[in-house]
Design brief:
Layout: H1 10-28, E1 40-47, E2 51-54, E3 60-62, E4 64-69, E5 73-78, E6 81-82, E7 91-93, E8 100-102, E9 115-123, E10 126-129, E11 133-137, E12 151-154, E13 159-161, E14 173-177, E15 190-192, E16 198-200, E17 213-218, E18 223-226, E19 232-235, E20 251-257, E21 262-268, E22 273-276, E23 278-282, E24 286-291, E25 301-304, E26 309-312, E27 321-329, E28 332-350, E29 355-357, E30 363-366, E31 368-372, E32 376-381, E33 384-385, E34 395-398, E35 401-404, E36 413-421, E37 424-434, E38 437-441, E39 447-452, E40 457-459, E41 463-466, E42 470-475, E43 487-489, E44 495-497, E45 506-514, E46 517-528, E47 532-535, E48 540-543, E49 548-551, E50 553-555, E51 563-568, E52 571-572, E53 580-581, E54 585-588, E55 597-604, E56 609-619, E57 626-631, E58 637-643, E59 654-661, E60 670-676, E61 681-685, E62 691-699, E63 714-715, E64 726-731, E65 737-743, E66 756-763, E67 771-775, E68 779-783, E69 790-799, E70 802-806, E71 810-813, E72 824-829, E73 836-841, E74 852-864, E75 876-880, E76 888-891, E77 898-908, E78 919-922, E79 934-939, ...
Subunit structure: Interacts with SHTN1; the interaction occurs in axonal growth cones. Interacts with isoform 2 of BSG.
Keywords: Cell adhesion, Cell membrane, Cell projection, Disulfide bond, Glycoprotein, Immunoglobulin domain, Membrane, Repeat, Signal, Transmembrane, Transmembrane helix
InterPro entries: FN3_dom, FN3_sf, Ig-like_dom, Ig-like_dom_sf, Ig-like_fold, Ig_I-set, Ig_sub, Ig_sub2
Length: 1050
């Protein structure tokens, strides 16, 4: 089709529309405009390629098809001479076509028809020519028989095994294999050159084989031919007398291909440039490429054959120059320069195009081509050289341009332009048609065009007429023609609206007019809101098994029907039973690895579309590490190496190394160490005499992998213990013994078999020899000791491999006995209502017969000074630690107004001594405890009845009760009122002047010392609650105790 829409292409569009018009006229004239008969010179529509290679096993078809009015007739030239098809029964021409079909029988060979063919399509208005088609038959010649002598070469030297395949058409594909049809391995040292030879930069002893076979594959015949195999024998250097290895002489690089220091290469424009540089040497040389005076074209260059081949695609003139390959090893280097020339077969700069003119109009045909060397231009008309035709006063040739002036109907013809040089040619047919026709509209009538607001818009009005009509646009049938400002009219009839707005809606009319008449067409324009995605999907990472959700909220013009579709990795997304799509989102439950990819939401209307993409990354626990390997073993360490498993898109942050041993706790895996996620080889610190096996767990942000397969087992050798038994101590369970105990070594601390302990002890500061014992237990009892004597103690762990380190000396004690003395002169002072100061004479510390713990005071409440009050006489104890000469302490938490008895003993860690003297004292009077209950018993319409109980402890002589109360209205409180009561009164009725008011009450008991703890109660308004009290009295029995401090009344 013709170029369209792009503003930069409108100058081409003007020309192209006439070609389009021409086609439309000739194809539609018989249907749309029956009275009009348009004549058309021939046009070649299909032809075979210029270089036409055919398979000899198939019939030959040389294609040539053309159109024209009247239908063209076809003829052929072969090798520049008329080809009489009727004289050869094997050659037929297809019906309604000029294509030749050549069949083979009666012993004729395809090669008999090789040559250059050209097709001529002619009618009354001209002759069109095809390209010159060079017909060749594919050939797959046999390899010449030859006897190949064994190739003998010294190890380390270079070698070329030549292939020299038979020439084929097209050339065969070369590859090297052995007799078992296995490819010969190729690498930096051994590789095949562009000519098919096999190059050895240096030969090694392992290269000796009897079956190096060069194979040629002919693509047309699909046959493979094999050259007789080479036998390669490698002579190795003699073994040095004093050494066990073979000496191979090293060598500096030399070139195997190309030879010499420089060469040249010619390549045609747009073809592929292949430069080769193969070097010999030991060690194998490395090949590098560069271009003198510039850089290699990075976008077009590719290195192949282990850097020995430089390939540049789509060669242009800028690729000409000097290319240098350098081969080097540590002994030296060598260079080769290749001078590349870029030539060019002809290529079009301005290809002649068909020309439609009206009588007496002017026009021109232009044929411009370039190449290297510069191509020559030849004009032909109807297949004949222009200079051999009769002079035409309406035609003038100026080099690559033909100028037509005041043409007439008989000027119609087919002109050919031939551009050629030594590398090829171009042939183009251009129709010159002289037509006299009134304006006609070619597009559909009354078309409705819907466009998007604020977008550049084009309204097409294809038309034709000869001479070319003038065209004008009108909107809604009013005003002058549209052009300029908001509008632009192109010569092909298209109206551009630079930015379509709602106000641009309406009916547009295009009118084409010439001296022969007028024609018009209408286009109705509707401007729509754009379709857009207002909430697009966002990239997200989801853990395997979770749910992923992609948003896709759409806004569009209400009058347009839209469809929303989803793709994954640019392929349609099959929803199935699992994936769910609604109007605004796509939900993927239970995501797995197969769900990972890029999801695209596409919303389409009939005139526009929008899309947005987001990537889903599925995270998972890592795969378990693999291939655990142990190395660098020593007595107490070993290197563990592993291959990390797939991290499943969440980087591994940590590796956990676990171990299992098969003696103490077989089957139980214990963590040994953890390492950063970038490590996969670590030194493990081990303990002696353990039969280890290891496994590794990988950790990422999702969690832990499954454990790896276990490593092989590794058993460390035994050693004396390293550890010292912990928590060593000595204490007596009886007055004449001492138990020495310690924490035994763990299984991993044994370091060898037969673990046992050696324990030493002696009396502290005695200077005696150490006593010792060996035991396998974790306890030893020393008998017949003195009471509470300090001992020095130490311990050592041992096994069959030796003794471990000794512990530090600790101090332990033998057993305690009952203290023999009692504290004396126990007395009290400063007795208050709830505490008293006690005093006593201390004992001699030697009489404690153990570790002094405390002076322990035993006391009990004998009675209350309140008549008739029964008390609890339970004995209580309290300890005091003091070593001063005149000790004293405060005894607290006593009950006021009570009589107490007490005595004191001294205590060590096991026993109490004899009691001191028993004394008696009384506490002073205090304030009462809180009343046991306080509640609103009843509430009537105009009263509240309160009841309470006596305090739990009066703490003195009870003098009575005090009741404070005030009204509460929202946040406002009334003036407090106070009532006092005798000790025997435990109820009170309050008259209510306003039953809708709430009250707060505060009650306390009273002794001579003062008020006791306050209890509070609140009455709700009658309107909310009081009627419950009348019918459900228990509702009001709920009381709420509160410390007076809560209300600020104390």
């Amino acid at each position: 089709m013709c170029p369209h829409r792009s503003e930069s292409s409108y100058h081409m569009y003007t020309v192209c529309i006439y070609v389009y018009v021409y086609y439309c006229i000739f194809t539609a004239a018989m249907f749309m405009w029956r009275p009009v008969t348009v004549k058309q010179p021939p046009t070649i529509t299909k032809q075979s390629v210029k270089d036409f290679i055919v398979d000899p096993r198939d019939n030959i078809v040389i294609e040539c098809e053309a159109k024209g009015n009247p239908l063209p007739k076809f003829s052929w030239r072969r090798n520049g001479k008329f080809f009489n098809i009727g004289n050869d029964p094997l050659v037929t021409m297809r019906k309604r076509s000029g294509s030749l079909e050549i069949g083979f029988r009666n012993g004729r060979r395809p090669e008999d028809y090789e040559g250059e063919y050209q097709c001529f399509a002619a009618n009354d208005f001209g002759i069109a020519l095809s390209n010159k088609i060079l017909l060749r038959v594919s050939k797959a010649p046999l390899w010449p028989k030859e006897v190949l002598e064994p190739v003998v070469v010294t190890e380390g030297s270079s070698l070329i095994l030549t292939c020299n395949p038979p020439p084929g058409l097209p050339p065969p594909l070369i590859f090297w294999m052995d007799s078992n049809m296995n490819s010969i391995p190729q690498d930096k040292r051994v590789s095949m050159g562009l000519n098919g030879d096999l190059y050895f930069s240096n030969v090694l002893s392992q290269d000796a084989h009897r079956d190096y076979c060069c194979n040629a594959r002919f693509p047309f015949t699909k046959t493979i031919q094999q050259k007789n195999p080479f036998t390669l024998k490698v002579q190795t250097s003699p073994t040095h007398e004093l050494k066990t290895f073979i000496l191979v002489a090293e060598s500096t690089p030399t070139l195997l291909a190309p030879l010499g220091s420089e060469s040249s290469k010619m390549v045609l424009r747009d073809e592929e440039l292949l430069l080769e540089c193969i070097a010999a040497g030991l060690p194998t040389p490395t090949v590098k490429w560069f271009k003198k005076g510039g850089d290699l074209p990075a976008r077009k260059v590719k290195f192949e054959n282990y850097n020995k081949t430089l390939k540049i695609i789509n060669v242009s003139e800028e690729d000409a120059g000097e290319y240098v390959c350098m081969a080097n090893n540590h002994l030296g280097s060598i260079r080769h320069s290749i001078f590349v020339q870029v030539k060019a077969a002809p290529y079009w700069l301005d290809k002649p195009s068909d020309l439609v003119l009206a009588p007496d109009e002017n026009g021109r045909l232009v044929c411009r081509a370039n190449g290297n060397p510069k191509p020559s231009i030849q004009w032909l008309v109807n297949g004949l050289p222009l200079e051999s035709t009769l002079p035409n006063p309406n035609r003038q040739v100026l080099g690559d341009t033909i100028i037509f002036q005041s043409v007439q109907f008989d000027s119609s013809a087919v002109y050919q332009c031939n551009a050629s040089n030594q590398h090829g040619y171009l042939l183009a047919n251009a129709l010159v048609s002289i037509i006299d026709m009134r304006p006609r509209m070619l597009g559909p009538k009354n078309q409705l065009i819907k466009v998007i607001q604020n977008k550049q818009t084009f309204l097409d009005c294809p038309f034709f007429g000869s001479p070319v009509p003038d065209l004008r646009w009108f909107k809604n049938g009013q005003g002058s023609g549209l052009d300029g400002g908001h509008y632009r009219v192109y010569v092909n009839g298209t109206l551009e609206i630079k930015r379509a707005l709602v106000g641009d809606e309406g009916t547009y009319t295009c009118v084409a007019s010439s001296m022969l008449g007028t024609a018009e067409n209408q286009v109705r324009l509707e401007v729509k809101e754009p379709t857009s995605i207002v909430r697009a999907p966002e990239h997200q990472s989801s853990v395997r098994g979770s749910t992923a959700r992609f948003d896709c909220k759409v806004k569009s013009d209400p009058s347009l029907h839209i469809t929303v579709s989803w793709t994954k990795d640019d392929k349609p997304l099959y929803l199935g039973w699992r994936l769910k799509k609604d109007e605004e989102s796509l939900t993927i439950p239970n995501v797995n690895e197969g769900d990972e990819g890029t999801y695209t939401c596409t919303v389409k209307s009939e005139i526009d579309q929008d899309s947005a993409s987001a990537r889903l990354t599925v995270l998972d626990r890592p795969n378990p590490p693999m291939d655990l390997d142990l190395s660098d073993a020593s007595a107490r360490s070993i290197r563990l190496t592993w291959i990390p498993g797939n991290e499943n898109r969440s980087p591994i942050t940590e590796f956990l190394v676990q171990f299992e041993e098969d003696h103490w706790e077989p089957g139980r895996w214990t963590e040994l160490a953890s390492y950063p996620g970038h490590l996969n080889s670590v030194m493990l610190q081990l303990v002696p005499f353990i039969n280890y096996q290891f496994r590794v767990i990988a950790v990422n942000s999702v969690g832990q992998s499954q454990p790896s397969r276990p490593s092989p087992r590794y058993k460390t050798s035994g050693a004396p213990p390293d550890a010292i038994p912990r928590d060593l101590r000595g204490w007596g369970s009886e007055k004449d013994n001492m138990e020495i105990i310690w924490e035994p070594l763990s299984d991993l601390e044994r370091n060898g078999p037969n673990l046992h302990y050696k324990v030493w002890w002696r009396a502290k500061d005695s200077g005696e020899e150490w006593n010792n014992v060996t035991t396998i237990d974790s306890k030893y009892v020393v008998h017949n000791t003195q009471t509470y004597v300090p001992y020095e103690i130490k311990i050592q762990a041992r096994n069959d491999f030796g003794s471990g380190p000794e512990s530090n000396v600790i101090i332990g004690y033998s057993g305690e006995d009952k203290p023999t003395d009692a504290p004396t002169e126990l007395r009290v002072s400063k007795v208050e209502s709830s505490n008293a100061v006690i005093h006593w004479k201390p004992v001699d510390m030697n009489s404690v017969q153990g570790e002094f713990k405390e002076y322990r005071l035993h006391f009990w409440r004998e009675s209350s000074l309140v008549p008739g009050l029964v008390v609890n006489k339970e004995m209580k104890s309290k300890g005091f630690y003091s070593t001063v000469e005149e000790p004293s302490a405060i005894l607290s938490d006593l009950v006021p107004y009570s009589t107490y008895h007490m005595f004191m003993v001294v205590a060590n860690k096991r026993y109490e001594g004899p009691p001191s003297n028993t004394i008696k004292f009384s506490t002073k009077e205090g304030v009462p405890d809180v009343p046991r209950t306080f509640r609103i018993k009843r509430r009537g319409l105009d009263f509240i009845h309160l009841e309470w109980d006596k305090p739990g402890e009066p703490n003195g002589i009870l003098l009575g009760y005090q009741l404070k109360y005030y009204t509460v209205n929202g946040s406002k409180e009334g003036t407090p009122q106070v009532e006092t009561f005798f000790p025997n009164m435990t109820q009170f009725t309050l008259s209510l002047p306003d039953r809708a008011v709430s009250y707060k009450f505060f009650l306390s008991a009273l002794t001579q010392v003062g008020h006791g703890v306050v209890v509070a109660e609140e009455s709700p308004p009658f309107a909310n609650e009081a009627h419950f009290c009348l019918f459900l009295p228990f509702f009001c029995n709920y009381t709420k105790l509160s410390r007076a401090g809560r209300y600020g009344l104390l």
